[in-house]
Design brief:
Elements (H helix, E strand, L loop, with lengths): L1 H9 L3 H26 L18 H59 L2 H20 L3 H17 L3 H86 L6 H40 L4 H18 L3 H10 L12 H4 L7 H7 L2 H9 L5 H12 L20 H15 L11 H10 L7 H9 L1 H10 L6
Helix pairs in contact: 2-3, 3-4, 3-6, 4-5, 5-6, 6-7, 6-12, 7-8, 8-9, 8-14, 8-17, 9-13, 12-13, 13-14
Length: about 475
């Protein structure tokens, strides 16, 4: 915006002004479109009973409304500065057209007066000549114009001449153009200052909104942790109760005690297994949240998890780390919970502004997960942040290149793209296998880690078996 204002003030023609105005309105329309999509009252779904769209939060919504109002104010100020610059260009053109007439007329009068050899007249004209430059090129204010008019009046009284009267009229006309130009410049500076203040306030609002989104995301994760911890506490209490039941009757026979202990241990193992499954289900559910927002199936995250584990094992990661990645990879798109439905479920290609909003999901997911000390959620944070990075450095959000990208991000990238291309989405039909394989070969060492692409093709049958095992069922 600052650059557009500077372009306006520095513009030299009406045509340039019109181009700048066209560019400004194009940017404003794009901004208003994005803002209207964010602020639209979209229909709540079942998921909204548990997680509210971030942009609907009262505090976020209030600041977005303020941002919208501020942009309207900028539009008004832009129109003002546009009209001022237009007037300045017009006055400048009028000055350039009429100043040669003033100069020509002044020189003609000067020759006549010099011929009179009247010292008093020559001195009076010299004063006029001096103050004409003060008015037109130095001080450019009404004070010096009035002094000039007084000097011209005095000369006119002593030297009654038709050419002199004509010159006075021409000069007065040119001088008024100059004074109007100065007034327009002053108003331009004042308006530019107001626009600068609005832009500064907008930057503060943007920063505030980002901080509020981070706080809300953190609170959501804390709530999820609280739920898991509550389940664990209840489970532990139940285990203690069972242990108490096993040991309370000291009169039981050895065989009965042994049987009770074995039953108790079996129960404990079963509960531990259930706890582990519950933790995994919570992670898968959180991963599915991001997918469900964009109308994708829960099987997508299951397939991505299995593909990721298979790639990790063949890449050389340990069984434990491969299993960790399997559990973490379903959360690669958790950041989509913060993306408006109107963008997330758009049945077509995104424009530049929509793509910019959509691409924030990687960073948002990372912000939601990075605060955890648990290995699983730490891995999930890495996956969320880096699964859209590309081997050649053209990905987002950081533009990482080659092995700068964490192996978790490189593996999940291939797993996610393979499944996404082979699945129906709201904006496309599933690709044929040959088309997918052709793309993978073309994107080797561009989008994807070349070693992982080789692993994919060397073990293609296993990937296809996973896809078939967890294929989507038509409803």
């Amino acid at each position: 915006m600052n650059l557009l204002v500077e372009d306006i003030i520095n513009s030299k023609s009406i045509e340039q002004l019109k181009e700048i105005k066209k560019e400004f309105h194009k940017n404003e329309m794009a901004f208003e479109k994005i803002l209207s999509e964010i602020l639209i009252e979209d229909k709540d779904d079942t998921l909204d009973l548990f997680i509210q769209d971030i942009h609907k939060h009262p505090v976020i919504s209030k600041h977005l409304q303020l941002l919208s109002k501020s942009e309207k104010n900028i539009e008004e100020k832009f129109d003002i500065i546009f009209n001022l610059q237009k007037r300045k260009i017009e006055l400048d053109e009028l000055f350039k057209i009429n100043y040669p007439n003033e100069s020509k007329s002044r020189k003609s009068i000067e020759k006549q007066i010099l011929k009179t050899k009247n010292v008093e007249l020559i001195q009076q004209f010299s004063d006029i000549k001096y103050y004409s430059k003060e008015v037109l090129f130095q001080h450019k204010n009404s004070k010096y114009l009035n002094i000039w008019l007084e000097k011209a009046k005095l000369l006119s009284q002593n030297y009654n001449n038709e050419k002199l009267e004509k010159y006075i009229k021409v000069f007065n006309k040119v001088a008024n153009y100059v004074l109007q130009l100065e007034e327009v410049k002053s108003k331009e500076i004042e308006t530019q200052s107001k626009i600068d203040n609005i832009i500064k306030n907008n930057k503060k609002l943007n920063t505030t909104i980002e901080q509020e989104i981070e706080t809300l995301s953190t609170n959501f994760i804390k709530s999820a942790y609280s739920l898991i911890i509550t389940l664990l506490v209840i489970t532990i209490i139940f285990i203690i109760y069972l242990a108490f039941k096993v040991n309370r009757n000291v009169a039981l026979s050895f065989n009965e005690v042994e049987e009770k202990v074995e039953d108790g241990l079996k129960t404990i193992k079963k509960l531990n297994h259930e706890i582990e499954n519950t933790q995994k289900e919570v992670v898968f559910t959180m991963g599915a949240i991001g997918e469900s927002r964009s109308k994708e199936t829960g099987n997508h995250v299951k397939r991505v998890a299995e593909y990721s584990k298979l790639l990790a094992l063949y890449y050389g990661l340990s069984k434990e780390e491969a299993e960790l990645l399997k559990q973490a990879s379903p959360m690669h798109d958790i950041g989509k919970v913060a993306i408006p439905d109107s963008i997330l479920n758009k049945p077509g290609r995104f424009d530049d502004k929509e793509r910019e909003v959509m691409n924030t999901h990687a960073k948002l997911g990372y912000e939601m997960l990075k605060h955890s000390n648990r290995a699983l959620l730490k891995a999930a944070a890495i996956v969320s942040l880096e699964h859209h990075e590309k081997w050649d450095g053209t990905g987002y959000p950081k533009g990482l290149k080659g092995e700068e990208i964490h192996i978790y991000g490189r593996i999940t990238a291939i797993a996610d793209v393979f499944d996404a291309l082979g699945s129906d989405r709201c904006y496309k039909k599933a690709w044929e296998d040959e088309k997918i394989f052709k793309l993978f070969k073309e994107e080797k060492a561009k989008h994807f880690d070349p070693k992982l692409v080789d692993i994919f093709f060397e073990n293609l049958n296993e990937f296809l078996e996973i896809r078939n095992k967890f294929k989507d069922t038509e409803e």
